[in-house]
Amino acid sequence: MAEPAEPGRPPLRRDAELNRRRLMVAAREVFRDRGLAATLDDVARHAGLGVGTAYRHFANKEELVDAVFEDMIDQVEASAREAAADPDPWHGLASSLEKVCELQAHDRGLREVMLGTGKAAQRHALVDRRIRPLVDPLIARAKEQGALRADVEPLDLPMIQLMVAAIADRTGVPDLWRRYLRLLLDGMRTQPQGAELLPPRTEFRGFGPGMFPAAKSPIRP
Q1: Distance (Å, rounded) from C-alpha 167 to C-alpha 173?
Q2: If we measure between CA atoms, which residue out of 169, 150, 35, 160 comes closest to residue 98?
Q3: Distance CA 149, CA 189 (A)
Q4: Are 105 and 168 contacting, i.e. CB atoms less than 8 angstroms apart?
Q5: HSE-up of 99 (CA within 13 Å, CB side)?
Q6: Helix (H/G/I), strand (E/B), else coil: 219
Q7: pLDDT digit of tens for each residue in the chain (221 aa)?
């Protein structure tokens, strides 16, 4: 029996749909650990499927990255909906931001998708369309509550996510980002004297060679 189709895609037989899901799960794991340098062939091998099966579902790696990205946005949207339903808007905002940062910190592929070139602009636009209608009212409620600074703007949140993702990229210490997210959250509060203690620096002991590559020259027309 055919499974229900996604919009714009014809129904798949049950075995074909299972293979597609196996590829999606494998892609999440491969991109998470190895980044987007991994190939569609790598994903097929990790899924235990033939390369031909992978190419029947996805014409190229970019199509697979798009599908995985949409799955990840589903997770982010679910977190944003949970935050929007929180009766304490500051708690909802802070916990939602922490969940998204955790997702990015432990997923190299997601960081590369969000920071990358090519279709990054379209992907950011998709996030904006799906997440911003949930987050903007939450920010307004947190300001009305008196917990969030009046000058915080919705665009500040993805900028914080990018900063936190860079910590995971540059240090290689999985949970170090939590310390700096806490600092940033305290800076967003109207009354930071109620701040919690910072998480420890764990294994990070300082900067090593190659942690900060030379800045690229600006692209000129």
Answers
A1: 8
A2: 160
A3: 6
A4: yes
A5: 17
A6: coil
A7: 444 445 555 555 788 889 999 999 999 999 988 888 899 999 999 999 999 999 999 999 889 988 988 888 898 999 999 999 999 999 999 999 999 998 888 888 877 777 665 677 787 788 889 999 999 999 999 999 999 999 999 989 988 988 888 888 788 787 889 999 999 999 999 876 555 666 666 655 555 555 545 444 433 33
- Torsional sign, CA 185, 211, 171, 122: positive
Residue 168 tokens read as 């995971």
CA-based end-to-end distance of the chain: 54
66 close to 122: Cβ distance less than 8 angstroms: no
- Helical H segments across 58-194, by residue range: 61-84, 89-105, 108-115, 120-145, 156-171, 177-188
**CA–CA dist 73, 139 (Å, integer):** 20
Residues 81 and 134 sit within 8 Å (Cβ to Cβ): yes
